[in-house]
Design brief:
The chain is an alpha+beta fold and 216 residues long. It is 27% helix and 18% strand. The chain is built from three helices and six strands, in the order ααβββαβββ. Helix 1 packs across helix 2. It is elongated and about 60 Å long.
Length: 216
């Protein structure tokens, strides 16, 4: 039997390695957190780096089975209906990477990979609005951390659902608190499972893995 280019375990390692690279990149790009939707910029950077890393790991420079859609990852000020039950913004078809034919049945050993990311952002100490009701000194309207926590739980629920398909998942959570407030994140009311890494005074991150379940 031909040895596959990479294994599922090594694919998980590639995802983790790419995220560590992106987390270091974020330290050089603190203004990302001033964007209206920082998740989109961070995920775009992550997806581009992950695609290249998977190509190198498999020795397939033309491989392109990574799909990215960051259009609905942020709650914004609209309805919450679009964040319920949707697929993760990054999805990888792993069959070719694992040395399997495209028509192979999807079993635990051929699990796909899905990646979601959520930025939890503490509100500013003050908010001044212009005559149109838009913030004067920032590009984003604060959203309650409780609401952000709801969005995070939707990520968890969707990745847990995908493990039965089966599909491996990774959830990355970033916490930005430039004002140093004590928030629901600090009191562990949100993401109580998280073990935080703190690469900068106002920037924390954590990750959680969701392993594909054996359908047998």
């Amino acid at each position: 039997m031909t040895t596959p280019p990479v294994s599922l375990a090594s694919l998980r390692g590639v995802v983790d390695g790419v995220w560590h690279d992106v987390s270091r990149w974020l330290l050089q790009k603190p203004r990302v957190f001033s964007l209206a939707h920082p998740e989109q910029q961070i995920l775009f950077e992550f997806a581009a780096r992950l695609r290249e890393a998977l190509r190198q790991a498999a020795g397939q420079p033309r491989w392109d089975r990574l799909y990215f859609d960051g259009s609905s990852i942020s709650l914004g000020s609209g309805s919450v209906s679009h964040v319920v039950g949707r697929r993760p913004p990054i999805f990888v078809d792993t069959r070719r990477l694992l040395g399997l034919p495209d028509a192979a049945p999807r079993m635990a050993a051929t699990a796909d990979l899905a990646v979601s990311l959520q930025v939890l952002r503490a509100p500013p100490p003050q908010l001044e609005l212009d005559e149109d009701g838009r913030p004067r000194s920032q590009r984003w309207m604060p959203v309650s951390l409780r609401v952000q926590g709801f969005l995070l739980e939707e990520h968890v629920a969707e990745l847990e659902r995908l493990t039965a398909q089966p599909c491996d998942g990774t959830l990355i959570v970033i916490y930005s608190n430039e004002t140093g407030r004590r928030t629901a994140v600090d009191s562990r009311d949100i993401v109580s499972w998280a073990s935080w890494h703190q690469p900068a005074p106002t920037f924390w991150w954590s990750s959680r893995h969701f392993r594909a379940r054996d359908p047998g």
